[in-house]
Amino acid sequence: MGIGKPSKLSQCYVARDPCDPPGTPEAIAITNNSITLRWTKPEYDGGSKVTGYIVEKKDLPDGRWMKANFTNVIETEYLTTGLVEDHKYEFRVIARNAAGVFSDPSYSTGPITAKDEVDPPRISIDPQYTQTLFVNAGDNFKIDADVHGKPIPTIYWMKGKQELTNTLYREIRNTDHTTCLSVKEARRVDGGEYTLLLKNIGGEKSVCITVKVLDKPGPPGGPISVSGVSIHDGGSAIQGYIVEICKAENEEWIMCTPPTGLRVNKFEIHKLIENQEYNIRVCAMNKIGVGELAAIPGTAKPEEKTEGPELSLDSELRKGIVVRAGGSVRINIPFRGRPSPDIGWSKDEAELSDKVLIEKGLNYTQLSIDGCDRNDTGKYTLKLENKSGSVSEFVSVKVLDTPGPPLNLEMKEIKKDSVTLVWEPPVTDGGAKIKNYVVDKRESTRKTYSNVTAKCLKTCFKVENIVEGAMYYFRVMAENEFGVGQPVELKNAVKASEIPLPVGKVTLIDVTKSSVSLAWEKPEHDGGSRITGYLIEMQPKGTDKWGVTTSTKTCDGIVSALTAGQEYSFRVIAYNEKGKSDPTPLAAPVIANDLNIEPSFRLLFNSYNVKSGKDLKIEIPVIGRPKPKIEWMKDGEALKQTTRVTYSSTHVSTILQIKEANKDDLVETTNSYTILTIDNVNRFDSGKYVLTLENNSGTKSAFVSVRILDSPSAPLNFVVKDITRDSVTLLWEQPLTDGGAKITNYIVEKRESVRKAYTAVTNNCTQNMFVISELQEGGIYYFRVRAVNEHGIGLAVETKDPVKVAQAPMPPGKVSVVDVTRNSVTLSWEKPSHDGGSKVICYNVEIQTKGSDKWNVSTTTKGLEATVTGLTSGEQHSFRIIAVNEKGKSEPKELGVPVITKDIQMEPTLNLLFTTYSVNAGKDLTIEVPFRGRPKPAVSWKKDGLPLRQTSSITLLTSEASSKISFKEATRDHVGKYEITLANTAGTKSVEIGVVVLDKPGSPTALKYDGGCNINNYIVEKRDTITTVWETVSSAVARTSIKVSRLTHGSEYQFRVYAVNRYGKGPFVESSGITAQYQFKLPGPPATPQIAHVTKAFMFVTWNEPVNDGGSPVLGYHLERRERSSVLWIKMNRRLIKDTEFKVTGTEEGLFYEYRVYAENIAGIGKCSKTSELVAARDPCDPPGKPTITNITKTSVSLLWTKPEYDGGDIELKFTSKWIAFI
């Protein structure tokens, strides 16, 4: 038909490089309603500058990607706001460059939950900074650390109390997660203690680093003082002092010091008697001798001196110590006393915690606390005590921190929608006045708290707007100027509920002489907690006491064991887990007497017409006592409980409920009426409803007809008939229900199987059948039909299975005889001109023997050719072909003439497409020559007049109808004339085929231009392809060839040549890359190994050399073995096997083994051979005994022999006999 009309024009597109996607975005700050994202720029911007980014977000789990930014984002950071707390989101980023090209989206962040994440600051620092850092003066040094915390903490570098900033010699570099302090050309003033301080809303963290700069010492401190100079040293240096002692009542002096004297001017004398008086004198000595003695005035009396303990508390400590949370406290107090007093520290008259360290010296004590928190606030008392007395002082420590947890959190009042909490202030206020309290709540089904208020100023709070009946946990935290303190949480969940409201109206259902049946309405509200039951209380006339008579979980109950004729009052109480409701009394007292009334009712109408979708309510007053049994039936069948219909009965009502698509049938029965309620009626609710009342006084029945005005139901018995290749006929019957109105017409629709939507074929079909024509041949369709009345279009009936529009195929084309033998006939035929719209499945070949009228199926095939075998030679047969598809069989197509089975001879013929074939060098080429001949001709090949032999690169393969010649990796050697010859008894046929290999030309033989004078020489250079440097091989080459040596095996090289004459060097000619490698390849696989001899201890394996040695002689072989149940091959030889046989030892008796062999030449180890047969490791079987002849006939000989002495471990023996004919 030709070329059709063109499509609409596409949009204009500009050919530009795409922009790479940005890096994966990372959340650097997360709150309950915002997330801050950061990402990296695209690696490639598509050739234009990136001008902005689009941030997309997706609500999890079922959201879709939506744009999160409404202005252009230029930086690689964006704050996403307006998020919902505790919801999960994913984010991704798209880049846009100046050319207007958008990148692909980046990888998503993964799920991120929008909630306040508070992580106190943390510092990760190299262990070397925990010790003093020594730096030589003039050197550079740096201090770096990793910082952590959420939100990202603020970083401060301090030296002493002064914050450091950038100067000429000092630089501070901070990122979100690292910080680095660098100092250039360190000086003495750069030494000292550096403090790294981090702060965020979660707290503070600091670490100290001590730096000591090694430099020349400074000048000594003045002024200079001189001491230790004697009045006169006799002109010679004093060498020592001698101390002597004697008792006051004696004159015998005893030397206390060594004879050589003391070098110091202080000496302690030991081993004295207490309360004994002594005289003491001292003299000096030099190299000349001992000087004059100097006596201590008076006498010395050794006695124990006692001194009460004293301590010195400076004014700063008396004022108290104030420290920030995380800081350190050092309380150093000097003392004195004789003997040395005992030391005792306490905090608020209690023992110290384990984190407090106490240090004691000779005359001082120190209390140390590191990492202070609110719990370290208090009075620290030091008590000194010895036998002369005791003394104590205290130091107040105030830690500025967030408050501790409030005390005694409890519930004061619980209602269905509110809870009132009360608590007491925390013991520790964190060193600052408590500003307010934070109250949080958490549903028991959730893991995270949500804030209720952060501005509570009292120690009580009413939590409102909570979900009635839900379980909640609550917690309270105090807040001061340093932040929110520790929480106190309710141990048990609180249920938002209260006692229920009173029950509704209480109704008397039945009265007998011994019992009363009551029913009541549920309370209007259950207080937020499920009602667990009801109590019926009774009060006999003449008493004021109410007593519980019955407990029930339903809204009705029976009070029994009453006294006939007695008058009683009743009331009902509802209760839940919170308590009892107020009672609801029965309106009037009841006298216990029997009553009998025959059941009766009054129908207002006998039939009802209701439009579909509307509600139907039928109210029928009922009279009867005792309360009659009420039963509803529809269309003669009782309304039974099913998965769709349920009903229940009590003393005051019967409820029928139909659960399907929000459509309910409700039958309600009280002591005075019964009501049938049908909500949202549909066509299936039409029918006759029968009401039956029964009690011991009689029975009463009546019916009500309900007619639902709706669209019709689905047509019945929908079938498809008379399928052709372009049409189908549809048949159906009228719907079961016509929807209360006459059916006016039918709508017929069709749908292709690959589509989801139906299209209308006709909207006004008035009969119960329709023919759909102009269908697509071979198409697969679904059909459906819907009835229409004045209320609308009814339900559809649809074909269950797809319908294929097709019919039986046309007969096959021309039938031909391909081949005839004495017992077979080969036929071929053409495809049918039309397949009937359905693919032809197969063809049946039928045969009829001469003299017979019966056609028989001889064979079935899917192709267009078949061979009928098993025929009798010389007989005449007729043949015909039938095509078959899924719709049936075609008309038969007969062979034009009968066929007589006999052998025929045909001279060989060749069907050669081309006489010359070309192939690129290195590629494979296969030439297939189809031929025919009878009998099958012998095939032979020649090349350039010589017989062609198979090699590793030339393979010949001949089948029944063709001969193939294959060239592997064609080279120049394969170029030539190839002759194929076919010969049989009918004749001979030969054809020549030319093969051309397309390869690079040889080297040039002469220069195109010699510059006008003779060439003097050539310069040859080489270059390894992995470098760009050319190296000179020779600069004085006289000929046009050169041998380049000292190349690396396996490396690729390029060469170039310059011609030189007396005027200089001409342009170069350059070769392509050439790999330095051997001119031979790996050897081919050896022949399949054979096991020549087997025993249980060894096997003798032999093999033949490979057909192709790769161009280099085979140096040897490698043999591998594998056990049948293993996948592991094990090498058998340690050294190269020089021969084509090898003895394998170490076999295990009874196991099966197989072998393979590799050949090796100078190029390496080639491919392995085929695997040998599995052989069991067993000793060989002994030969059988000598055979003897037991019987001889003209055509046979009977032999007899004995079994072998050893059967090799095989139970089943097999014997083979051989014979030799003598002529």
From TrEMBL:
<feature type="domain" description="Ig-like">
    <location>
        <begin position="908"/>
        <end position="992"/>
    </location>
</feature>
<protein>
    <recommendedName>
        <fullName>Titin</fullName>
    </recommendedName>
</protein>
<dbReference type="GO" id="GO:0048738">
    <property type="term" value="P:cardiac muscle tissue development"/>
</dbReference>
<feature type="domain" description="Fibronectin type-III">
    <location>
        <begin position="21"/>
        <end position="117"/>
    </location>
</feature>
<dbReference type="InterPro" id="IPR036116">
    <property type="entry name" value="FN3_sf"/>
</dbReference>
<feature type="domain" description="Fibronectin type-III">
    <location>
        <begin position="405"/>
        <end position="499"/>
    </location>
</feature>
<feature type="domain" description="Fibronectin type-III">
    <location>
        <begin position="1183"/>
        <end position="1223"/>
    </location>
</feature>
<dbReference type="InterPro" id="IPR003598">
    <property type="entry name" value="Ig_sub2"/>
</dbReference>
<dbReference type="GO" id="GO:0045214">
    <property type="term" value="P:sarcomere organization"/>
</dbReference>
<feature type="domain" description="Ig-like">
    <location>
        <begin position="121"/>
        <end position="210"/>
    </location>
</feature>
<dbReference type="InterPro" id="IPR003599">
    <property type="entry name" value="Ig_sub"/>
</dbReference>
<feature type="domain" description="Ig-like">
    <location>
        <begin position="309"/>
        <end position="398"/>
    </location>
</feature>
<feature type="domain" description="Fibronectin type-III">
    <location>
        <begin position="502"/>
        <end position="595"/>
    </location>
</feature>
<feature type="domain" description="Fibronectin type-III">
    <location>
        <begin position="714"/>
        <end position="808"/>
    </location>
</feature>
<dbReference type="InterPro" id="IPR013783">
    <property type="entry name" value="Ig-like_fold"/>
</dbReference>
<dbReference type="InterPro" id="IPR036179">
    <property type="entry name" value="Ig-like_dom_sf"/>
</dbReference>
<dbReference type="InterPro" id="IPR013098">
    <property type="entry name" value="Ig_I-set"/>
</dbReference>
<feature type="domain" description="Fibronectin type-III">
    <location>
        <begin position="207"/>
        <end position="305"/>
    </location>
</feature>
<keyword id="KW-0393">Immunoglobulin domain</keyword>
<dbReference type="Pfam" id="PF07679">
    <property type="entry name" value="I-set"/>
</dbReference>
<keyword id="KW-0677">Repeat</keyword>
<dbReference type="Pfam" id="PF00041">
    <property type="entry name" value="fn3"/>
</dbReference>
<feature type="domain" description="Fibronectin type-III">
    <location>
        <begin position="1085"/>
        <end position="1179"/>
    </location>
</feature>
<dbReference type="GO" id="GO:0031430">
    <property type="term" value="C:M band"/>
</dbReference>
<feature type="domain" description="Fibronectin type-III">
    <location>
        <begin position="980"/>
        <end position="1079"/>
    </location>
</feature>
<dbReference type="InterPro" id="IPR007110">
    <property type="entry name" value="Ig-like_dom"/>
</dbReference>
<feature type="domain" description="Ig-like">
    <location>
        <begin position="599"/>
        <end position="705"/>
    </location>
</feature>
<dbReference type="GO" id="GO:0008307">
    <property type="term" value="F:structural constituent of muscle"/>
</dbReference>
<feature type="domain" description="Fibronectin type-III">
    <location>
        <begin position="811"/>
        <end position="904"/>
    </location>
</feature>
<dbReference type="InterPro" id="IPR003961">
    <property type="entry name" value="FN3_dom"/>
</dbReference>
